[in-house]
Amino acid sequence: MSPEEKMMKRFALEQQRHHEKKSIYNLNEDEELTHYGQSLADIEKHNDIVDSDSDTEERGALSAELTAAHFGGGAGLLHSKTSQQEGEEGQKPKSRKELIEELIAKSKQEKRERQAQREDALELTEKLDQDWKEIQILLSHKTAKSENKDKKEKPKPDAYDMMVRELGFEMKAQPSSRMKTEEELAREEQERLRRLEAERLRRMLGKDEDENIKKPKHMSADDLNDGFVLDKDDRRLLSYKDGKMIVQEDVQEEQRKEASDAESEEEEGGGSSGEDPEESDGPDGHSDLESNVESEGENEKTKKEQRRTPEKGQTSDEQKARKAARTELPYTFAAPESYEELRSLLSGRSVEEQLLVVERIQKCNHPGLAVGNKAKLEKLFGFLLEYVGDLATDDPPDFRVIDKLVVQLYNLCQMFPESASDSIRFVLRDAMHEMEEMVETKGRATLPGLDVLIYLKITGLLFPTSDFWHPVVTPALVCMSQLLTKCPILSLQDVVKGLFVCCLFLDYVSLSQRFIPELINFLLGILYIATPNKQSQGYTLVHPFRALGKNSELLVVSDKEDVATWPRSSLSLRWAGGLRTPTMTEANHIRLSCLAVGLALLKHCVLMYRSLPSFHAIARPLQALLVEHLADCSHPCELQELCQSIVTEMDSHKQLLQPLTCEKSKPVPLKLFTPQLVKVLEFGRKQGSSKEEQERKRLIHKHKREFKGAVREIRKDNQFLARMQLSEIMERDAERKRKVKQLFNSLATQEGEWKALKRKKFKK
Amino acid sequence: MAGSRGATYKYKVWMRHRYRSCCSRLGELLAHPSFQVKELALSTLMKFVQLEGTCPLEKPKWEGNYLFPRELLRLVVGGLLSPEEDQSLLLSQFREYLEHDDIRYHTMQAAMDAVAQAPDRHPEVPPTFWNNAFLLLSAVSLPHQEPAVTSFYVKRTELSNKWKVAHRKEHRKTFQAMWLGFLKHKLPLSIYKKVLVTMHDTILPHLAQPALMIDFLTGAYDLGGAVSLLALNGLFVLIHEHNLEYPDFYRKLYGLLDPSIFHVKYRARFFHLADLFLSSSHLPAYLVAAFAKRLAHLALTAPPEALLMVLPFVCNLLRRHPACRVLVHRPQGLELDADPYDPAAEDPAKSRALESSLWELQALQRHYHPEVSKAASVINQTLSVPEVSIAPLLELTAYEVFEQDLKRKGPASLPLEFVPARGLLGQPNDLCTQHFTLG
């Protein structure tokens, strides 16, 4: 085997081994080793660059080698070595060593170039620094102070350095949620409205009441049922710096934000570049489940939006107003403590100023600013409401201010729904009470002033009117029903008011499409007082209207010529307030306008109630009157057309009546008796009884035991006594016996002696 | 002797003249504008009545003869029934004298005469007279039992059973004669109504023969309107307690049902009675069905407080008469083009109510007031057996409904309108905005 072949073989083997090692054992081959989150390779490179001092020495040595390798050197010292090498590798013209050396040389050169570049850059930066310093001194006087401070503490790092570092270590702009496109915004808004609408529908159908009980939230299988909820993922990335663990805490971050000193940035700068864990982990899986929390958050958001939107619309007005008012209006206002205070604040000012005052009161007393502000603003709502009522009753009523104040009321109501509802309920109760009193004393009521009508309108703006039951809206509905049934129509002004109430009523039920008998009656009455001839039948008037009397032709146009000149116009709310006695023509025009509105409302009703099962029963009297109207051709053609269209609407609607059936009720199931199960808590004890029972039993048992014991004792005593008595008797008996024996003995001896004596005698 | 006797006689005659003129003067003073004067005159006259009763001006014709200063009392009554002046205050003063049996008895007699003579004196009897007369007559109230001790205003030393004034029966006779005499006349409508209002509990029980009131009551019942409603009560007492046969009673009751019953003052009374009349289980089904349908029909124009009462009322009718349940439950019914019920038919038998269904209640399920809607929804389920008592609902007023709504506790969080307000007439789709301007 030639050495060349040997070499080839070895090389191949080496390659193979190298390859095998790589693939089989070196598991971490593909992984990048890191230190402080940075690749080790990078760090090495970095070190290479940084440790330039040691590099220079090494470079000298290497360069000598390099020259020897590349240029034959000419240095004798190396010759022997090279000759040796040449002995081995001389045959190969381009050996591996050469390749390596070439590589090394290349890298060295690159390194040198880099070095040179760096030096250049350093020089340039130094120059730039100096220039910058000069410019800075020239430019700014403000930074001088901080510079001085820096100089005292650390003379060397200048402002520019700091700035560079600052910029370098400054948090990279986080990828924030991207700007939403208009479509997305629209979709979001649509989604929100859809959700609110669904909620409203649910309330309208009155399904709320039993579903109000909180639904159980989703529960994980791992839930310990201990009420613990993981609000957010509070895990953080573990990171080290200088061998110490860095605890990234919000506190620290906050401190950093608050601390305006620039130096503190240096220490924590490294840490701050790390991402905010909460932000990235926020939209986690379980946050979706807490829909409540989220929706609340959204609600708040939407509220804010709502609050913002009307303000936007006003900005131009406001700016104008500000310009005008800047000279005279103070910027802060204390919240008024009483209604008089508010009135004195607002009275005598222009519309814009009044608005501005109210707005500033709100801003100065924002509930977030101080503790008592919430109560103050809650009161403000009531005062504003009263003010609105006052404005409405003024002569002439100031609708412009009311119109603007409504927005403020809406905002306040969104902030404090409870107190707002209380104030509105209070004014409604007041109005109703007044009416009730009037009915009791005079037997009839008059339609209340504009203020009550405005309150009712505001109620409809602030609260959802379609709810099946609502604490504010339902009383308001009853109140309107009273206005339409209890108050006789005595003047044109009353007609205008009544029609306004009708409009309000229909607006209230516009979504829920509910049925209002009073309204139909009222419109019937309005039609009736607009017809001159009263022969036909087919309808009956109810309470506020009378078939005969001086007001039974209130809306009949007195002069036919005015019909031609009638300008079709909306009714003015001003007419409902203080109507100055109008001229004949004006009055006739108002009459025609009233009739037009009445007919329009009637058409609305017809369209709305067409689907009701007994629509024909409802519409029959109206139809009779309308036909009468049509017969009378004195009306303007517009009204004639309107009448005609209503009648055709009524006629065209044919409905099939389905006989009523009850819903099938479920059969009542038989009552089932489940056996009563008693847990056996302890064996050998009587179970299934209450505590008292147990106690009683225990006492009985104790009594028994004691009784037995006592009996035993007594028995023992008796036995003892008997024994004692017996022994006593025995003793006594024994004594007696002994004595008797003794006696017998003595007697016997006596006898014996006597006998012996006798015998002796006898013998003798 | 004769002269002196003559002088005493003359003096007595003169004194009696003075007394007469004093009394007539006092009688005139009863019409004095000042109330104090009137009051004083009345009490003085009554004092005279008392004294004259104890010491009669004429001798009793026989032992135990009952004497009473009728003329004097007639003067007082005549003064009280003044055709020009409203004597209501004085009459309330007089009321306390009426507690005595004798005064009451003689007043009734005097009043009867005064009322009977009134049209002769004035061709056109002024309403004030009728008002005064009604007040006086209604002030008379007989005790319900025979009193153990008769209380006399004029003190008597001994009492006799022979006197008419001591018997309650006589009192009742006079009472009846007085009222019948009063009601014979053509009374103003307001008095008519007042009489009818008090008829059942102050007049009818005290009459000797209540059946004599039939003419008056049927006449009133036929008048129609509110008067009919009021006459119902009296008729009911007669029918219920005195076996009055009244043909077409239910037909007329049916005729009374018109949209105004929900708005009149006597609504509670009417429905209370209607409930009584319709409580009999022997009524034919067509009749009850006609009533139920008619009430449902009228309910389409009723205010919420009336609806809260009439809806349970209708449901009660259906509960009482299972044959009428087809009105709310007709499982195999065919679809109809129009309601077979004829609201214009006067006879309930011809109204074809049994062929109809209570679609009106179905419509009222869409009523704006939640309670009404709930009450109307009862018919969706099979009606429960026990009736709902409507007694507490009869007197329900709108104000009470309002207060109830205000007091009811709502859900914890108050729902708010989510469409932001843009101004008083800001929402462009509102009817208010379409038809009204602020200018």
From TrEMBL, chain A:
GO cellular component, one term: small-subunit processome
Predominant location category: nucleus
Region of interest (Disordered), residue spans: 1-24, 73-126, 170-329
Ranges of biased composition (kind: Acidic residues): 261-282
GO biological process, one term: maturation of SSU-rRNA
Compositional bias of kind Basic and acidic residues: 1-17, 89-126, 179-207, 229-244, 298-321
Entry keywords, A to Z: Nucleus, Ribosome biogenesis, rRNA processing
Keyword Transferase: no
Subcellular location: Nucleus, Nucleolus
Lineage: superkingdom: Eukaryota
Similarity comment: Belongs to the NOP14 family.
Reported function: Involved in nucleolar processing of pre-18S ribosomal RNA. Has a role in the nuclear export of 40S pre-ribosomal subunit to the cytoplasm.
Protein name: Nucleolar protein 14
UniProtKB/TrEMBL annotation, chain B:
GO cellular component terms, semicolon-separated: Noc4p-Nop14p complex; small-subunit processome
Gene Ontology terms: biological process: ribosome biogenesis
CCAAT-binding factor domain ranges (all copies): 228-376
Matches recorded under InterPro entries: CCAAT-binding_factor (IPR005612), Noc4 (IPR027193)
The family this protein is said to belong to: Belongs to the CBF/MAK21 family.
Protein name from the UniProt record: Nucleolar complex protein 4 homolog
Lineage: Eukaryota, Metazoa, Chordata, Craniata, Vertebrata
Gene label: NOC4L
